[in-house]
Amino acid sequence: MTVEGMTFELPRGPEDAGGSTAADVRAACLALEQVDERTVIERAQTGDRLAFEELVRRYDRDVLRLALNVLRRAEDARDVYQEAFLKIYKNLPRFRFECSFYTWLYRIVTNLCLDHLRRRHARPEDQAPEHAEQAREDAAPDFFDRQAASHAGSDPERHLLNQELAGKLDAALARLSPRERTVFAMKHYQGLKLRAIGDALGTTEETVKNSLFRATRKLRAQLEGLL
Amino acid sequence: MSEHERQSVPSACPEMEQKLLLYVCCELGADERASVAAHVNGTPGQAGCPGCAAALERETSLQRAIESLGAPADSLDRSELLLAQSRSELAEALDDAEARRGHGFAGGWREFAGRIWNFGRLWTLHPAASAALLLLLGFGLGVGAPLVYQEIAMREPLKPAMVVDAAPRLTDQELQNVGSVGLKWEPVQGAPDATDAAGSTGVNGSSEPRVELQLFSQRPVSIEGSAGDAEVQRVLTYMVANSRRFDPGVLLDSLDLLRPSAGDPNVRRALCAAARQNENPGVRLKALESLRGYERDALVRQTLLAALRKDANCGVRVEALNTLVDVLNAQADSAADSSDVEIVNALQESRDSDPNQYVRMVSATALRQVAPEPAH
After folding, report:
1. What is this structure's pTM?
2. B45-61 pLDDT, tens per residue?
3. Contact at CB, B71 and A188, closer than 8 angstroms
4. Complex ipTM value
5. Pair type for strands B221-226 and B162-165
6. Alpha helices in B259-313 (DSSP H)
7. What three-state secondary structure class fits B212?
8. Statement: residue B111 has pLDDT above 80
9. Number of Cβ pairs closer than 8 Å across A and B?
């Protein structure tokens, strides 16, 4: 296979990878990194484990980030990460390139996130509190970060105000419906366009607009006085 | 912002609210952005909208605040430790999935069982939903199952435990044990009245109507055949002879079917028995009608005379009277015999004592014709 003038020899399948040395596998992984997405997906569809791991490596940071931003709880995000990739592993042979792999992946992840949020809404008493606020307090984990935070130029009053705002925002987000919350996170934390969010959620751009508008109105009402 | 300040801020135009949000989120096209900006800031010839300007300011400050707080993912996994953990766990899960896939058939069954188990668990976690589902299931089965059963039963008529052709002969004991009888028959084409049934050609080409008899006893039996089949006729004759035990509707059909066979002495005996004994006047009347043409038979004539003298129903008496008068008229030219004398006596009794005026009048007329009174 030739990519930008370079020739790569891909392993023919998982049995090839299993029967070769670690150096061979590493070389195969490096070769896969250079291969275009469609080829990697097609190889993964044939059961090539290395190709599938390459796909995971390409997208898993985004997947975890999306899950963290929507769910704001590390354990849940980790569950969604694993469920999503296992689902993709099982269903990849049925992927027909009718949409981009990225859209398909996001659709799976957002659906799993929505399921988690709905379960949380249905049984709030079984849920541990969200850790975003705590994590924000611990956001400067080492000495140098703490020094930077207490720098003479920093504004302690502003810091306190931000903490209060963050707490209120967490509380306000917890009150949003699962769909509103997902749309909000995808827009503000993932930076996705509304059309892309609609694709991922399997709905129209107009519906997403309405969800975002409702979410923003509710947040503004909750944060009134702090802004 | 103080309470007073907040109250004094004008509100945004309702149609602009969503557009302002989309403006701040950079989700508007160039034209729409320009239009929103013109509305808020104004154009050289037109002042801006202060309400929308204030709303845009609020929207911008909210977006800035959200941005300043940063994404939760930044704080929750700053060191990417969670990502590393997740990758490691996924690798293990993939190894398990591959191992299961490698087990082939057994692995497939395990996965299937796991899915069922998970489905069960899902419902145990939702007691209200599972209760509602069970309730619906019970209601559906309670209401739907009888309807479905009825539908099937209507499409496919109830089949007896045993079907016999007309050929095998039922024992007399079996006939005596019959509790009730169901009778279905197809009238022959072109014969709306069963009177003509036997003489015409049937729908299926046969000259006699098809009859299906269902005898309900300890051993349900179905008999199918034409009205002239020996076994069908035997059962019909038995029913008419023992007419008190059977439903009048079935008896009336049986009498229709037996009418062409009234030449058979056994059938006539059964018809006479029905005319004398059955409690239903319709059955008695039809039995007498079926005996027409056989008045020369002594038993038939005795039955007609008994009906004229004793039957409680005037319709039955009129039928007997008409038949007997026909007999007298038919024999007017021949020498009178003892039976004619008996008929004349019966007519005289009717003329003198029948409670029905019509019967008395017809009897008197008939007597005048056959035995004119001497002039005074």
Report:
1. 0.48
2. 788 899 999 999 988 98
3. yes
4. 0.76
5. parallel
6. 265-277, 281-290, 298-310
7. strand
8. no
9. 114
